[in-house]
Design a protein that fits this description.
- By secondary structure, this protein is an alpha/beta fold.
- It contains eight helices and nine strands.
- The chain has two domains: about 5-155, SPOUT methyltransferase, trefoil knot domain (Alpha/beta knot, 3-Layer(aba) Sandwich); about 165-225, tRNA(m1g37)methyltransferase, domain 2 (Trp Operon Repressor, Chain A, Orthogonal Bundle).
- Helix content is about 30%, strand content about 20%.
- A five-stranded parallel beta sheet has the order 2-1-6-5-7, with helices on both faces. Strands 3-4 form a two-stranded antiparallel sheet.
- α3 (about 100-105) crosses α4 (about 145-155).
- The structure holds S-adenosylmethionine.
Length: about 230
């Protein structure tokens, strides 16, 4: 059985095909470490045209997703896969960050991600979810790419997905800071040289340099991270 399941309710299941065939997540799915299943919303639509949206009460532009097809899709997914943590993707949700990604990675057996479209979902659909999440202060046309962001970020924390799990401990946001600068070959590129200390072989000094660089970089680029309470 997979260590973590990702389920997505979407009008466009085909969007999930190619992104998760490649890379570490693709490999983890192939190996059965994680599972990804899309649940098409359209079959739960109403009437002969399988309608999932309608005009907003009170007027205004665009269409709103009706609650009944969403409820039916959520109920069916929960019945087939009990215990999933239901997450609605919305720009009005809690802002996603690494601590939140970590919390989501602990929601076993996994996540049911609900992707909106049009002008979003009928307000009453919010009663059917456990959490609402936004991936940033901007508006996308649909929740699919937001769901993919969550899957990609959470999957890397599932044991066995990353080739080198130690890299998790050092990367940006894991210790509340950005990561230190990284270098590989060549030693000199267009006149820019790799810092001598990284070639010194002195691991203690390298660790101290990296810590100092991480702090400096964070102070320059994201000073807010340094004053944020640790979660
Ligand atoms: C055009 S948006 C709807 C925006 C909505 N009218 C509002 O102003 O809050 C359509 C769908 O895209 C998804 N979406 C858009 N921006 C998002 C974001 N920043 N984070 C997560 N999901 C987002 C949601 O699923 C949403 O239902």
């Amino acid at each position: 059985m997979a260590l973590m399941e990702f389920h997505v309710i979407t009008l466009f299941p085909e969007m999930f095909e190619s992104p998760f065939r490649v890379g570490m997540v693709g490999r983890a799915i192939e190996q059965g470490i994680i599972a990804l299943k899309t649940h098409a919303l359209r079959p739960y639509g109403l009437g002969a045209y399988k309608q999932v949206d309608d005009a907003p009460y009170g007027g205004g532009s665009g269409m709103v997703m009706r609650p009944e097809p969403l409820a039916a899709a959520i109920d069916a997914a929960m019945e087939a896969h009990p215990g999933l943590w239901r997450v609605l993707l919305t720009p009005q949700g809690e802002l996603l960050d690494q601590p939140k990604v970590r919390e989501l990675s602990e929601r076993k057996p996994g996540l049911l991600l609900i992707a909106g479209r049009y002008e979003g979902v009928d307000e009453r659909a919010r009663a059917m979810v456990d959490q609402e999440i936004s991936i940033g202060d901007y508006v996308l046309s649909g929740g699919e790419i937001a769901a993919m962001v969550i899957i990609e970020a959470v999957a890397r924390l599932v044991p066995g997905v990353l080739g080198n799990p130690e890299s998790l401990a050092e990367e940006s946001f894991s210790a509340g800071m950005l990561e230190y600068p990284q270098y590989t070959r060549p030693e000199v590129f267009r006149g820019m040289k790799v810092p001598d200390i990284l070639l010194s072989g002195d691991h203690q000094k390298i660790r101290a340099w990296r810590e100092a660089e991480a702090r400096k970089r964070t102070a320059e680029r994201r000073p807010d991270l340094l004053v944020r309470p640790k979660r």
